[in-house]
Amino acid sequence: MTKAEIRNLYKQKRQHLSALQIEENSIAIANQALQLDIWQHTYYHLFLSMARHKEVDTSMLLHVLQGKDKQVVVSKTHFKTHSLSHFLLTDATIIKENSFGIPEPQDGLEVPVHKIDVVFVPLLAFDQNGHRIGYGQGFYDRFLNECRNDTLKVGLSFFEPLDQALQPQTHDVALDVVITPEQHYWF
Asked: Which residues does the record give as substrate binding sites (predicted)?
């Protein structure tokens, strides 16, 4: 299958998930994350879930991060430049959905990319080598290419890895680990 075919298939698979399945699987993913040796860092980048796309609900991970007194960083999307800017999430941060349904900070303290230690990455599908398929706009690949070499890249997926290997492009960044409801995969 092509990347486009895989993208469409996994969008359809997610649309068939019930609200209860999303909640239970998101809790299971947060519990799997707690088993990983990733909690010694300071700055954690977390994507805020798009409910209409039935993404992994990251609110559970947010509670874990806050409970561990971590600095949580969230992004604002810039569609003209296909880039992200990153802001510290605080009690005062105002979050609003943009026209694409992405919850984003409206303002706040901007965090330079080099400070980010761990990035939780959204995805539609992934393979046994840690390559992912996202929505196809390249926002996260550009962002991950800006990160330090030792920044941990942690994918979150409702589904297990693809049987076929994906053919990465030169700008694609492989993940270090992917967490599913059942287990986690280190690459």
From this structure: 50, 55
Q: Tell me: is residue 7 an annotated ligand-binding position.
A: yes
182 is in an annotated binding site: no
67 in a labelled binding site: no
Confirm whether pTM is higher than 0.90: yes
43 is in an annotated binding site: no
Average pLDDT over residues 16-25: 97
Write the single-letter amino acid at 128: Q
> Domain 3-186 carries which CATH code?
3.40.50.10420
Average pLDDT of the residues in 111-115: 97
Consult the annotation and say whether 132 binds a ligand.
yes
- 63 has a pLDDT exceeding 90: yes
> Is 33 assigned to a binding site?
no
**Cβ atoms within 10 Å, residue 172:** 17
Tell me what percent of the residues of the chain surpass a pLDDT of 70: 100
What pLDDT score was predicted for residue 15? 95
Asked if residue 134 belongs to a known ligand binding site, the reply is: yes
108 is in an annotated binding site: no
Whether 136 has a binding-site annotation, put simply, is yes
Separation between Cα atoms, residue 176 and residue 153, nearest integer Å = 5
